[in-house]
């Protein structure tokens, strides 16, 4: 399990290269409203690996590798947002984007600026699926999970300087990332994985409990935003139905 976790957290140069490239691909796919291009960016994106790595090694009490997995997630997320911001600024000053273009009207971007509770449930399920794929060494299943979780596209979307677009996309990517971490962490512990040394089991248990508690609190805080978006979407549908009826 430790060997598999190490494979999911590649060398820093490789990780950063794939992250920058996947963000560029995702940004292009979003602006082109191309689902196929965005799926390609999801496959290239390396953010899912460190999330599973951090969960595995927290359960197995490998503090050094756990710290690396967490740092890779945070640093990777910030880098994706920064790259998305830079690309957005450059494109706005070029002739590649029409001055009258409203990115909020692009369907692929709109999907990533309307997070709701279904996004949370999906991410929790994908975290469990990712953990099982590592436990059973099913690489193809892990690729499917990485595509479905789609961490980089909303991160790239959150780089745009439109406040509402940026905040909504940031909430989505944070909810996805936190939910994957907590569900994978619980899945590995429930599956019976423990440190080799008996003395480390107690520390691993307390570490898992504290990590799960922290992640749940963070998800609960973000759930306020999810609830507001869900309620707003529901009210919008009711108004549209009423108008159509009239």
Automatic annotation (TrEMBL):
**What's in the keyword line of the UniProt record?**
Membrane, Transmembrane, Transmembrane helix
What domain of life does the native source organism fall in? Archaea
Stretches that traverse the bilayer: 12-32, 38-60, 72-91, 117-135, 142-162, 168-191, 212-234
| Keyword Nucleotide-binding attributed | no
Q: Which InterPro entries match?
A: DUF389
Question: What name appears for this protein in its UniProt entry?
Answer: TIGR00341 family protein
Organism field? Methanosarcina barkeri MS
């Amino acid at each position: 399990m430790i060997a598999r976790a190490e494979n999911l957290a590649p060398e820093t140069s490789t990780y950063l290269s794939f992250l920058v490239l996947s963000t560029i691909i995702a940004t292009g796919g979003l602006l082109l409203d191309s689902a196929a291009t965005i799926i390609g960016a999801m496959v290239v994106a390396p953010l899912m690996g460190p999330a599973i790595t951090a969960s595995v090694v927290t359960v197995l009490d490998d503090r050094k590798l756990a710290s690396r997995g967490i740092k890779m997630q945070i640093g990777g997320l910030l880098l994706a947002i920064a790259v998305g911001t830079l690309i957005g600024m450059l494109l706005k000053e070029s002739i590649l984007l029409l001055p009258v273009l409203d990115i909020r009207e692009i369907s692929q971007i709109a999907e990533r600026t309307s997070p709701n509770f279904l996004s949370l449930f999906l991410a929790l399920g994908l975290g469990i699926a990712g953990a099982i794929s590592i436990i059973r060494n099913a690489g193809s299943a892990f690729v499917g999970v990485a595509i479905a979780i789609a961490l980089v596209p909303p991160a790239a979307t959150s780089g745009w300087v439109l406040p509402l677009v940026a905040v909504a996309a940031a909430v989505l990517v944070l909810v996805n990332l936190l939910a994957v971490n907590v569900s994978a962490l619980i899945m590995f512990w429930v599956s019976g994985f423990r440190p080799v040394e008996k003395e480390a089991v107690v520390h691993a248990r307390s570490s898992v409990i504290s990590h799960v508690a922290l992640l749940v609190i963070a998800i609960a805080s973000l759930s306020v935003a999810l609830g507001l978006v869900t309620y707003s979407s529901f009210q919008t549908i009711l108004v549209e139905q009423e108008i159509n009826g009239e």
